[in-house]
Amino acid sequence: xxxxxxxxxxxxxxxxxxxxAQSSERAGKPFFSGQFLLGAHRGGGDLWPENTLxxxxxxxxxxxxxxxETDVRLTSDGAVVLxxxxxxxxxxxxxxxxxxxxxxxxxxxxxxxxxxTDNGTTFPHRGKGLTVATLDEALNAQPRSRFLIExxxxxxxxxxALRIIAAANAESRVLIASFVAPTMERAxxxxxxxxxxxxMKTGMALLMALRGPAWETYAPQAxxxxxxxxxxxxxxxxxxxxxxxxxxxxxxxxHTINDAARMREFVSQGVDSILTDRPDALAQVIAEIRAGASx
Length: 295
Fold this sequence. Notes:
Elements: H1 16-22, E1 38-40, H2 53-62, E2 67-74, E3 80-82, H3 103-107, H4 135-141, E4 146-151, H5 155-167, E5 174-177, H6 181-190, E6 195-196, H7 200-210, E7 224-228, H8 239-247, E8 251-255, H9 260-269, E9 273-276, H10 279-293
Parallel strand pairs: 1-2, 1-9, 2-4, 4-5, 5-6, 7-8, 8-9
Antiparallel strand pairs: 2-3
Helix pairs in contact: 5-6, 9-10
């Protein structure tokens, strides 16, 4: 998912800070009124066919307040579809780049063709009618769920996606991310009240401000700093600096964490959110840690 900023963070907070990080009383946008810690990367891609309506339905059935992360791209005829890769080759029975295919061509593909939970021995959802989903289908299929939507494309995608979000009356339940700074700038200009992740440009500005003389007057440019775990060792931020970010109301998310030991480490450190392909494992870790923290 979301390579929204190449800033690695290490935080050493006690588990008590999770309650603060998760608190709905903390100043913020409606998106954050529910729990934010448990996030399903691509709908829970190790458990169900990624970025499909089936995956979202299954995730919500097990974890009603889960945050559903997904990726969107434009088709050749302007539809907004859920697809992480540039091409359809890895996840479907088709070939080609999404931007060169029409919606009808994408809908003819099997979106679960290559999904397997046993290293390719079986393909339990192949041929079951799971198609490439559109953004409007996802938002309308889960009308009470929150989505973290990564815009995988140039600025034109921002306008197309935001029109769909508005039509679904979903502005209060989406968090927008993109690795492409101009796409994020376009999105923020069109819908400034939606929740946003930091992108490369705003993220680097954040880091410079944090370590500069004007941090006290710095005004957050986004709501969430979402960090790939592989970048954590690279940028040596201290626990004190992370505390300063969270004190500003900037939530810290890490992805993509599928190992239970790492999940336990990050939850105990007080991160605001974890994206995982294994929401079942993360939910268990969260429950165990909270049970241990109870008096």
